[in-house]
Write a structure and sequence with these properties.
Layout (H helix, E strand, L loop, with lengths): L1 H24 L14 H9 L1 E5 L3 H5 L20 H10 L4 E7 L25 H11 L3 E6 L12 H18 L5 E3 L15 H11 L4 E4 L5 E3 L14 E2 L12 H6 L6 E2 L2 E6 L15 H11 L5 E5 L10 H18 L8 E4 L33 E6 L7 E8 L9 E6 L2 E6 L6 E9 L3 E7 L8 E7 L2 H4 L4
Parallel strand pairs: 1-2, 1-10, 2-3, 3-4, 4-5, 5-6, 6-9, 9-10
Antiparallel strand pairs: 7-8, 11-12, 12-17, 13-16, 13-18, 14-15, 14-17
């Protein structure tokens, strides 16, 4: 009798093992990444979507965009500088990162650098703008970034390769060791046509950043972490890959704008684009300029964030040291308009189905759960020739929409090469790349029972979509854009 009980117990144990194993086998792993893929810091950066730029310096007081470098430091005298008020502007736009121009091309430094007399130390202000900026950002829970211009029209060492590169490197170390965490650092490639010939040691500078602040995202024409989008309008290409070949890019070289704007589907480096644009016509504050109208800012948003980019929006403080009230109000209006458009998802409550799915954890319904870490994944063979599709059957087909939002799970690479959107079988939008986010504005609001997104990713593995959303933009609906 005892031996029978032992045998029964053994059978139960084996049966349990078999059941557990079967359950484990029923949950397939995610598909392999399509290389290259973003780093953790690049993913965090991409999900910010809107970040802020603050151009403030000698040009603010001389009514210039590019200073000569010969300006007297006594001109720099902001009477009411308040970096906390700048953070009000950043928060008004919904930004989680703010970047300060610590030194522009005129060479005037907004911190009391030990390596030059041409700084706030020699001005009536005598404070440390970088310190005030980083402290104010930290107090508001906003991450700080720094812009340090390689082109310097003031310093006598400029043009002397070793001497100037040592000077620049020393200032880079000051900024990266004296002001806490820096989330992004900007290396501008701009230089005047008649500028002194100068070889920059970008490789050394980038390695210094990696040594001192390994999680900082480095911006330049060629990255290594974030690239320029190729224009200052805030517009990415209608085709926009996060990948490029860095070896094909020379920082500051003319003729690379189209490549930067579109990216490269065969790129070996993940270097997503950042769309830099000012809220005003100029980068620095000028008394006779005003902020762009709301509808123009919305156009910029659709053509930057809506095309797989991060929008870097500049709000220049004025000569008193404050962002103009009208500019803050415009930023607040901009954020409110985005909330009006995107806070309501007219796809909510829909039933999702797809051409196939990879199994549990990768079902079509994942595109509706509002999470970045879940996604729909079709089987590898499905749609290899004719494309893949995912369809939403709406619970309120009478509710019209005019914006379609599609997002890829880019943590495992960018895959979609072409896509098309159908409403009740009628095509309403089409495009090429998707990336982190693709937004389609329709010419007219449409209603319908089914919304199908067809995607092709030939040779790049099955597409992985994390979201499909539907929204109503009343500004478009009113015919005002």
């Amino acid at each position: 009798m005892g031996s029978v009980l032992i045998c029964l117990a053994a059978l139960v144990t084996v049966d349990g093992l078999v059941s557990s194993s079967a359950a484990w086998l029923a949950t397939p792993p995610p598909p392999l990444p399509v290389l290259p893929i973003p780093s953790a810091s690049q993913l965090r950066w991409q999900r910010r979507e809107i970040i802020m730029f603050f151009h403030f310096g000698m040009n603010t007081f001389t009514d210039s965009e590019w200073g000569t470098g010969s300006e007297d430091p006594s001109l720099f005298r902001p009477a009411s500088l308040n970096a906390s008020q700048w953070m009000d502007a950043a928060q008004a736009a919904g930004a989680s990162l703010a970047i300060l121009v610590a030194k522009h091309h005129d060479g005037f430094c907004l911190w009391p650098s030990a390596y030059t007399a041409h700084s706030v130390r020699a001005s009536p202000f005598r404070g440390d703008v970088v310190r005030e900026f980083t402290d104010a950002a930290r107090a508001r829970g906003i991450d700080a970034g720094i812009y340090l211009s390689p082109w310097d029209r003031h310093d006598a060492r400029y043009g002397k390769e070793t001497a100037y590169n040592e000077y620049y490197e020393a200032q880079l170390r000051e900024l990266l060791t004296g002001y806490g965490s820096v989330s992004e650092i900007w290396f501008d490639g701009a230089k005047g046509k008649n500028a002194t010939n100068m070889t920059y040691h970008f490789s050394e500078w980038f390695q210094t950043v990696r040594q001192l602040q390994p999680s900082t995202n480095i911006f330049s024409d060629a990255g290594p972490d974030v690239r320029w989008v190729g224009d200052e309008k805030g517009f990415a290409g209608t085709t926009c890959w996060s990948t490029v070949n860095r070896s094909m890019i020379t920082i500051g070289e003319a003729g690379i704008e189209t490549y930067l704007n579109q990216g490269d589907p065969r790129g070996t480096d993940w270097v997503p684009p950042e769309c830099d644009v000012s809220i005003r016509p100029g980068w620095f504050w000028h008394r006779n300029e005003t902020a762009k109208p709301l509808l123009q800012l919305l156009e910029i948003y659709y053509n930057s964030v809506g095309r797989n980019c991060v929008l870097l929006l500049n709000a220049p403080p004025n000569a008193t040291g404050l962002v103009a009230d009208a500019d803050v109000a415009r930023l607040r209006e901009f954020r409110a308009a985005l909330a009006t458009i995107f806070n309501t998802d007219l796809a909510a409550g829909s039933v999702a189905r797809a051409s196939s799915d990879r199994g549990p954890r990768f079902e079509a319904r994942n595109v509706l759960d509002g999470r970045d870490d879940t996604f729909w994944a079709p089987t590898a063979d499905d749609g290899r020739r004719n494309g893949y599709w995912i369809e939403l059957r709406r619970c309120s087909p009478e509710r019209a929409f005019n914006v379609v939002r599609i997002q890829e799970h880019v943590a495992l690479g960018q895959r979609v090469e072409r896509h098309q959107v159908f409403v009740d079988g009628v095509p309403v939008a089409n495009g090429t790349t998707v990336g982190h986010k693709r937004l389609h504005r329709l010419a007219q609001p449409v209603a319908g029972r089914t919304v199908r997104v067809w995607v092709a990713a030939a040779g790049r593995g099955p597409p992985l979509l994390s979201a499909v959303g539907l929204h109503l933009d009343p500004f478009v609906a009113a015919g005002t854009v």
